[in-house]
Design goal:
The chain has 405 residues and is α+β, with helices and mostly antiparallel strands. The protein folds into three domains: 2-141, START domain (Alpha-D-Glucose-1,6-Bisphosphate, Chain A, domain 4), CATH 3.30.530; 148-241, Pdz3 Domain (Roll), CATH 2.30.42; 251-404, dinb family like domain (Four Helix Bundle (Hemerythrin (Met), subunit A)), CATH 1.20.120. It has 14 helices and 16 strands. α8 (251-273) packs parallel to α14. The longest helix is centred in the C-terminal third of the chain and has 34 residues, at 371-404. The radius of gyration is 24 Å and the shape is globular. The termini are far apart.
């Protein structure tokens, strides 16, 4: 129901989850980010403050006026760019099948600014509530499926690469590969191109692309500004969506799949490093590139970061903050000191991969029963395996380059 004349949005929906669980998703920071926003801080008591952040740059903040679990939450809501605070009320009613959720967002005024805020809020809440039902009932976050997808593999552009490959740009995103059947391929983007702009926004660094993409929509046609050698191009690209991986419902099947993947990766790594001497394993193909030993140290570091993320997710927490490359380099250097030989790094990485599978094997029952968090943990590990495959191929290419010197 939509009552524009009264400046009030009212939406009702039903979900197959009990009010106590739904209430947590409407008030607790960790749960809010699982369906609504990308980062959250929340103190759900009367007078307590909250802040919600989205990667698109939008944010909302305010305070809790009434907190009556598991039936009612009333909040002052003030979104970025909105003319003034509004009032947000959640009402939960237990039903035989679960919970009826009523959202009432009121206090919208008159005028063009309010009209735009009202329209965005109505659209946003309907989409968010659809996602809340999906997360609670199936453990599936719909947001990744809705996000635009180019289908390119990315690296930071730099002066060394520009000089060695004859590219007329030292900044931008170097496209190391284009996925078959992707939006990028359909739009004419090629491996070796440098993306310097998208949808009218300059893209000098990776973080600029990460900020720009959430502001776009799947199916939208945008202009990609590229540098191809010494030529500058502007190509129309219709953004696609990323295919969402399936996660088996049976934890034993998940474990069997993860174990089989780990064994394949381990065999590929042993094959790639067989007969490699310490000297060539320590030599980088050129300045600024990693040696085989540095690639292995990075892989060990990535496995252990995922162990930490699994632990945080199992406890209902999230790792916060951006990755700091300076800290990453320090951790990598530490591993190289601890494991000074190639065989030591290979064995350490094999143990780290085995430990990753064991982390999943011994997850507590409460995490296995939490569809969303269990799915996120499995997807983290699957993405880690893709990351490992890419770096094993990097090891092969590094050795070929070193032996050609």
């Amino acid at each position: 129901m939509l009552r524009a004349a009264e400046g009030t949005i009212e939406i009702k929906t039903r979900v197959g989850a009990w009010p106590e669980r739904v209430f947590a998703f409407l008030s607790r920071a960790g749960r809010l980010r699982e369906w609504l926003c990308d980062a959250a801080w929340s103190d759900p008591i009367p007078g307590g403050r909250y802040t919600l952040l989205w990667e698109s740059g939008y944010q909302a903040q305010g305070s809790f006026m009434e907190v009556a679990p598991p039936e009612r939450v009333v909040m002052i809501w003030h979104g970025l760019g909105e003319p003034a605070p509004t009032l947000l009320e959640w009402k939960l009613l237990e039903t035989p099948e679960g919970t009826e959720i009523t959202l009432v967002h009121s206090g919208f005024g008159d005028g063009l600014y309010w009209e735009a805020s009202y329209a965005e809020a109505d659209k946003g809440w309907r989409s968010a509530l659809e996602n809340l039902v999906s997360v609670l009932e199936q453990g599936i976050d719909l947001r990744p499926a809705r996000q635009p997808f180019l289908g390119i593999h990315l690296e930071e552009m730099n002066a060394r690469r520009a000089e060695s490959e004859g590219i007329a740009s030292e900044v931008g995103i170097y496209i190391s590969n284009v996925e078959e059947g992707s939006a990028a391929e359909a739009g004419g983007i090629q491996k070796g191109d440098v993306l310097v702009g998208l949808a009218g926004r300059e893209i000098p660094r990776l973080r600029d692309l990460f900020v720009t993409m959430p502001r776009l929509r799947a199916g939208e046609t945008v202009e990609a500004a590229l540098v191809r050698g010494q030529e500058r191009l502007a190509l129309p690209v219709t953004l696609g969506t990323r295919e969402q991986p399936e996660v088996p419902e049976d934890p034993e099947q998940v474990l069997a799949d993860l174990q089989a993947r780990r064994e394949r990766l381990e065999a590929a790594l042993l094959e790639a490093t067989e007969g490699v001497g310490e000297e060539e394993a320590s030599q980088a193909p050129s300045e600024g590139e990693w040696s085989v030993r540095e690639v292995l140290a990075h892989l060990c570091q990535a496995e252990r970061m995922v162990h930490q993320q699994i632990g945080y997710l199992a406890m209902g927490r999230w790792l916060e903050g951006d990755y700091d490359p300076v800290v990453g380099e320090g951790l990598q250097a530490t591993l190289l000191q601890i494991e000074p030989t190639l065989s030591g790094l290979v064995e350490r990485f094999r143990r780290d991969m085995q430990e990753t599978v064991q982390w999943v094997r011994y997850l507590p029952q409460v995490t296995l029963a939490d569809g969303y968090r269990y799915r996120q943990i499995v997807l983290f590990v699957l993405k880690l395996h893709e990351h490992t495959e890419e770096h094993i191929e990097q090891i092969r290419k590094t050795l070929a380059a070193v032996r050609a010197l």
